[in-house]
Amino acid sequence: MNSSMIVGECYRGGNFAVREVENDRVKLVPFVSSLHADLFFQGSVNHPELFRFLPYGPYDSAAEFVEGLIEGFINSDPGAALYAIIDKTHSFPHSPSPSQADFAGLIGYLNTSTTHLKTEIGCITILPPFQRTHVTTNAVGLLMEYALNSPSFSGLGLRRVQWQANELNFQSVQTAERMGFKREGTLRWDRVLPSDKGKPGNSTQSRAGDPKSDCVGRHTAILAICWDDWENGGREEVLRLMARRK
């Protein structure tokens, strides 16, 4: 079986083994607030559009980001793991820590269940200097490899990897489809979004007596790739995309 993935040290427990994964272009390391939080804040503070379709952010400080997303969500959920994306093509050789030059953003696993052999790729936030490069394809591809490859090939052996996106986030849906995820449907009125963050909602309609009438609702597009998709051509297509140099 072909693979571009190198699997590194296991960092912590939870529902599954959280490991570094990398190829020749991108490295994903478990997010550490003391190393990565300020880099993320500095890279995103002037770009609130990064959070337009996300159910969290933007943030006014690195501390608010850590409290809200890392402590409030990621670290409290054993089925979640957040990764820092390091662009190896911009890294300084033998550098002991990431910098603004090579810290490309965030990506993670959500809703992981080893009982049901499934996970979800989410929290994808690519900082502007790294958008429309090799970073997104390789970061997503590495997490797909690690989730769907069998344990004998250094993977988790999961059966299903899911992708959720605001139905209005056409770019996210297109990215998932390009990577081999199949559209399965739409969860209507799936989420209530913050009223003060400028989030786009699925409708301007409201109803009398709605307890959150000032908050918009979100329709969520659901996509997935499963083990049989992966083993019947999906893996090879993802590796082809990751190997492209133009």
Topology:
Layout: E1 6-12, E2 18-22, E3 26-30, H1 33-44, H2 62-74, E4 81-87, E5 103-113, E6 118-126, H3 135-148, E7 160-166, H4 170-178, E8 182-192, E9 217-226, H5 227-243
Parallel strand pairs: 6-7
Antiparallel strand pairs: 1-2, 2-3, 3-4, 4-5, 5-6, 7-9, 8-9
Helix pairs in contact: 1-2, 3-5
Structure, explained:
The chain is of the alpha+beta class. The chain has one domain (6-203, 216-243): Gcn5-related N-acetyltransferase (GNAT) (Aminopeptidase). The chain has helices at residues 33-44, 62-74, 135-148, 170-178, 227-243; strands spanning 6-12, 18-22, 26-30, 81-87, 103-113, 118-126, 160-166, 182-192, 217-226. Helix 1 packs across helix 2 (62-74) and helix 3 (135-148) runs antiparallel to helix 5 (227-243). The longest helix has 17 residues, at 227-243. The model has no long low-confidence stretch (mean pLDDT 92).
